[in-house]
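Record 1 of the preview.
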Amino acid sequence: MAQRLALQRLLSLPTRGLLAPHGRAFGTSAGRRNTFNVQDGSDFQDRVVNSPKPVVVDFHAQWCGPCKILGPRLEKLVAKLEGKVLMAKVDIDDHTDLAIEYEV
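->
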């Protein structure tokens, strides 16, 4: 329920356009175009902070049990929104600096 409310709030935000910066495609398969893995701090800045669309950021870890439950549920919700919201996945073990910066 809380996830849906958060996504509804995100959808109410104004968007500045429909294309990602530099014409990049998000994701690798048809079902996951709106979900992508963050590669580094600069990628996070380009694809999340500067995104013309709202972005849900999933900070997760391979060892985190709740993350394994929440992640797929968030992906399904984002997929149902058909491109109105994007989802960035940040592995906190690989990107500790981002986790610290955003107090995760």
